[in-house]
Amino acid sequence: MSNEQSAETTAPYGGTPQTAGGFSPSDSTYLDGIKKIRTVHLAEAKARGEKFAMLTCYDALTATIFDEAGIEVLLIGDSAGNNVLGHESTLTITLDQMIPLVAAVSSVAQRALVVADMPFGSYQVSPAQAVESAIRLMKEGGAHAVKMEGSAYYAEHVRAVVNAGIPVMAHIGFTPQSEHALGGFRIQGRGDASAKVVEDAVTLAEAGAFCVLMEMSTNATGSAVNKALGPVPTVSIGAGADATGHVLVWQDMMGLRSGKMARFVKQYANLHHIMKDAASAYRNDIRSGAYPAPEHGFEG
């Protein structure tokens, strides 16, 4: 990508590209020099052999922190059904429930690319339904792109959304919205099944997907997909190390959620214990009368 192609000019209708407050690059890699992450920058990263980071995000405060940290892609995942609403699976969250979460993230993300999940039932009926739902996520939620789960069967859905001017990230391998059809949480792409995962990826990329996310697939399958897609970047969550980008659910990565974690999760903090200890200290202060102290009140 030339300097002319990578440089972004002032927006023609009143806005200007902004830099995320507090983001301080640790080195001089290509992506660190980008003020506003776009889909073309992820493709250029793959061409340069550079990786990018992606995290789920569902609220403004968390989005601000991740944006300041330099996370390139923020995903408002339908995993909000589990991690925000307390549902047992991603299947029950609705488009109407997703949109305010997307709007919260997009309202504060200055640098990151904001991708919104298309929840179950919002696109499966037809390509026309997919376009209508994607428009709502972009128009009401402020998303920069949408993510759609499914095999090559959904190529026409992807093509219709892309033709409407909305970037699509395809999601293959294990697709949580199809957990019942897949027989549960099973690793995809083992043995002869690898060819089908690669075929799905290629077909969806040919339909216009700017990126393909692979979940819970074998390392070999993930590597084969990344190679088969050529210039199209890939994202891995439990699909090997060869992908251009990697994503985790932030509550898992930060240790906010406790209990057994998937094998692909690496925890970088233990917020569950930190927050529990803080809440206990707060309760003890109230019971003992240590809080509120005189300095926490107003005179006169």
Tell me the number of strands: 8
- Calculate the mean pLDDT score and round it: 91
Question: Distance between the terminal alpha carbons, to the nearest Å?
Answer: 65 Å
The unreliable regions are: 16-20
Structural class: alpha/beta
Q: Give the DSSP E fraction (strand runs of 2 or more residues).
A: 5-15%
- Taken in chain order, the helices and strands follow as HHEHEHHEHEHEHEHEEHH
Shape: globular
Count of helical stretches: 11
Helix content: 25-40%
Radius of gyration: 21 Å
- How is the biggest beta sheet arranged? 8 strands, parallel, barrel
Give the neighbour order of strands across the main sheet.
1-2-3-4-5-6-7-8
Which terms would index this structure?
11 helices; alpha/beta; 300 residues; 36% helix; eight-stranded parallel beta barrel
What does this structure look like?
- The protein has 300 residues and is an alpha/beta fold.
- 36% of the residues lie in helices and 13% in strands.
- The protein is built from eleven helices and eight strands.
- Helix 8 links the parallel strand 5 (168-173) and strand 6.
- Helix 3 crosses helix 5, helix 6 (127-139) packs across helix 7 and helix 8 (194-206) packs parallel to helix 9 (219-228).
- It is globular, with a radius of gyration of 21 Å.
Q: Would you spell out the secondary-structure blueprint of this structure?
A:
Layout: H1 3-6, H2 39-48, E1 52-56, H3 60-69, E2 73-76, H4 80-83, H5 95-106, E3 113-117, H6 127-139, E4 145-149, H7 155-163, E5 168-173, H8 194-206, E6 211-215, H9 219-228, E7 234-237, E8 245-248, H10 250-253, H11 271-288
Helix pairs in contact: 3-5, 6-7, 8-9
